[in-house]
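Quick check before the chapter quiz. The format below is the same one you will see on the exam, so make sure you can read both the input and the output lines.
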Amino acid sequence: MQPPTLLSLTIDSALRHIAHIADLSAIPDPIVLELFWKTLQAGKLTEKVLKLFMATGNEDILSFVHRLNIKPTLTPVLPTSKNHAIYFRFMPEL
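Here is the expected output.
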């Protein structure tokens, strides 16, 4: 039995800490693709991790996400204007 390669150990370590990684842009595409696949297999694909992988622009990952119909959820944003009268005038009278 051969010992694991440095690359496989690195990918496994990245997988263990995937929730804490902020940027994958410096990593070559084949390695990002393997990390994505292992992330799926390990059940660690969260909203944040999905956005991290999609931000790489890797065509294989984007295609795979599209084929599996994986969509990030959109969080509604509440208005932050201090002019509340604009928003209240559309509310029905109580």
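If your answer matched, good. The mean pLDDT is 86.
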